């Protein structure tokens, strides 16, 4: 059972908390819908497989841009909520507009806008929950990321009844004898990893001229309706906090921000002003070296772990259907869903564990677990059954790294508010870059190199975390020395470099 302090904190901030959770549900809906519908969108835009993969790239690239942009809205609660409302509404509008995009360029622009909105949501929701709960934020961040996983599970379920079961572009001048039938399940599973496997499937005959027969539009319109309550919830919170620009009775922004971000430690308005100033580059020279190292190491750890998630979800299907496993396409197609389902279940379980144990313990358990299961996957590389078991365990272990790392890093930095933007942006970068790196290695070295790359990345992640613990120890000693001897605060680098 949760203690009374946690419950009272939630009661005090329940409107904001539930709003941020619902925004992350919207994030999950959007991030998982493109993969299973990409072949139907190819038919809708009458484009080639090579052309449609630019849609994946545009979404991922602008998601990265949005993650950095979201940090600009942290100054006041009003700016954050208005940005959150705009972005969640944009996602619904993009869902509604996608069926009208009859050219791949228009579709790429639409998904780029959606990716930008997703990145802003990612940063703002994490940042505001950290501001609200500070030392108690770990459990609420676990719930936040559980809602993202829940949205990512709901999205494909909505889309599945409307996906084409046969070729969705019927040409007038070709027949079934002209080409072999295409296994759409195999193609969808191959394209699920952000289109990175296009080189292996480009030989499939996918016609672009003819009559388009697809019902995928209904899936996007349904998702637009499902997502509409989210911007409505954000707007309700804005109205409740009297932060509407047209409201003449709304309090001064800095006052409202301080009231809404009141923490159990009793931070004052001056503390929030420091949150804004701490990311000023001009202030870095007044910080110890350990301050910068904590940011860099925290971002590097999430770069690696989120990169593993992206690479594993993108290439586990190819690994399963390739020698020596040679798993059936239909069976291998369940691996990606199994992985994301285990991540969602893991985040649900870590909601309780984050209350019982500290973030460093959870991170050590998670990172060691990821290494062990991947080493076992390397050893039993010929067992299809163990691949499913290992996929489940890997998802459970790696599920809590992001929220635990975010809470732990902000705790080390005394909740200055700077780390969240750095960590979210690093995670988005890792998810995109490591996937591209692993994809290129697989194409040159074979499918076995995929598991080897993920295992090596796991060892790097654990080493970086151990280094982070050492830097944390030095940073705490430096802070203690500076507080005991005010004369040393002018040049903290001499003690903490």
Characterise this structure.
- The protein is mostly helical and 497 residues long.
- It has two domains: 12-267, Growth Hormone, Chain: A, CATH 1.20.1250; 278-497, Growth Hormone, Chain: A (Up-down Bundle), CATH 1.20.1250.
- The protein has 20 helices and two strands.
- It has helices at residues 4-12, 14-45, 49-69, 77-97, 104-133, 137-159, 184-191, 198-201, 216-227, 229-240, 253-260, 269-277, 289-321, 329-356, 359-379, 384-398, 401-412, 419-445, 448-484, 493-496, and strands at 169-170, 211-212.
- A two-stranded antiparallel sheet has the order 1-2.
- Helix 2 (14-45) packs antiparallel against helix 3.
- The longest helix is centred in the last third of the chain and has 37 residues, at 448-484.
- The radius of gyration is 24 Å and the shape is globular.
Notable features of this structure?
497 residues; mainly alpha; 2 domains; two-stranded antiparallel ribbon; 20 helices; 2 strands; globular
Anisotropy-based shape: globular
Listing every helix as H and every strand as E from the N terminus to the C terminus, the arrangement reads HHHHHHEHHEHHHHHHHHHHHH
CATH topology of the largest domain: Growth Hormone, Chain: A
- Uncertain stretches: 174-181, 198-203, 250-278, 488-494
Strand content: under 5%
| Tally of distinct domains | 2
Give the number of DSSP strands: 2
* Separation of the first and last Cα atoms: 43 Å
Q: Write out the strand line-up for the largest beta sheet, numbering strands in chain order.
A: 1-2
Indicate the mean pLDDT: 80
CATH architecture annotation of the largest domain:
Up-down Bundle
The radius of gyration computed from the alpha-carbon positions, rounded to a whole number of angstroms, is 24 Å
- The secondary-structure class comes to mainly alpha
Specify the number of helices.
20
**What is the CATH class name of the largest domain?**
Mainly Alpha
- Fraction in helix: over 70%
Which oligomerization state do the chains in this entry correspond to?
A: single chain
Q: Biggest β-sheet: count, sense, barrel?
A: 2 strands, antiparallel
CATH homologous superfamily designation of the largest domain: MFS general substrate transporter like domains
């Amino acid at each position: 059972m949760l203690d009374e302090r946690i419950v009272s904190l939630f009661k005090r901030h329940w409107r904001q908390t539930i709003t941020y959770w619902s925004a992350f549900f919207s994030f999950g809906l959007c991030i998982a819908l493109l993969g299973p519908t990409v072949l139907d969108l190819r038919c809708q835009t009458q484009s080639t497989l090579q052309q449609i993969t630019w849609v994946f790239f545009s979404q991922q690239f602008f998601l990265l841009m949005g993650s950095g942009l979201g940090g600009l809205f942290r100054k006041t609660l009003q700016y954050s909520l208005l940005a959150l409302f705009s972005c969640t509404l944009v996602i619904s509008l993009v869902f509604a507009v996608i069926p009208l995009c009859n050219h791949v360029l228009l579709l790429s622009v639409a998904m780029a806008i959606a990716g930008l909105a997703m990145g802003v949501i990612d940063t703002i929701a994490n940042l505001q929950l950290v501001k609200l709960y500070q030392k108690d934020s770990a459990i609420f961040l676990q719930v936040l990321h559980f809602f993202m996983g829940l949205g990512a599970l709901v999205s494909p379920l909505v889309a599945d009844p409307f996906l084409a079961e046969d070729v969705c572009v019927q040409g007038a001048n070709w027949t079934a004898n002209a080409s072999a039938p295409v296994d759409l399940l195999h193609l969808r599973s191959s394209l699920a990893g952000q289109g990175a496997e296009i080189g292996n499937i480009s030989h499939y005959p996918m016609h672009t001229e003819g009559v388009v027969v697809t019902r995928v539009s209904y899936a996007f319109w349904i998702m637009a309706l499902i997502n509409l309550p989210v911007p409505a919830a954000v707007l309700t919170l804005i109205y409740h906090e009297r932060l509407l620009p047209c409201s003449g009775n709304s309090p001064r922004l800095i006052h409202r921000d301080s009231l809404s971000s009141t923490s159990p430690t009793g931070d004052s308005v001056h503390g929030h002003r420091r949150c804004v100033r701490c990311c000023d580059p001009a202030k870095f020279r007044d910080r110890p070296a350990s301050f910068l190292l904590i940011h860099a190491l925290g971002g590097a750890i999430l770069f690696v772990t989120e990169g593993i998630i992206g690479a594993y979800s993108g290439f586990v299907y190819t690994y399963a259907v390739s020698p020596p496993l040679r798993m059936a396409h239909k069976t291998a197609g369940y691996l990606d869903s199994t992985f994301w389902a285990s991540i969602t279940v893991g985040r649900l379980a870590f909601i309780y564990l984050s209350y019982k144990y500290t973030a460093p313990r959870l991170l050590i358990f998670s990172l060691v677990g990821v290494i062990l299961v991947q080493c076992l996957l390397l050893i039993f590389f010929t067992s299809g059954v163990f691949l499913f078991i290992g996929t489940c365990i890997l998802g459970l272990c790696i599920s809590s790294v992001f929220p635990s790392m975010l809470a732990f890093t902000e705790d080390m930095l005394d909740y200055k508010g700077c780390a969240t933007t750095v960590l979210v942006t690093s995670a988005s970068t890792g998810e995109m870059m490591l996937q591209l790196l692993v994809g290129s290695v697989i194409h040159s070295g074979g499918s076995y190199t995929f598991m080897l790359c993920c295992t090596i990345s796991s060892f790097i992640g654990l080493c970086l975390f151990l280094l982070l613990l050492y830097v944390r120890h030095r940073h705490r000693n430096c802070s203690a020395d500076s507080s005991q001897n005010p004369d040393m605060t002018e040049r903290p680098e001499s003690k903490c470099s």
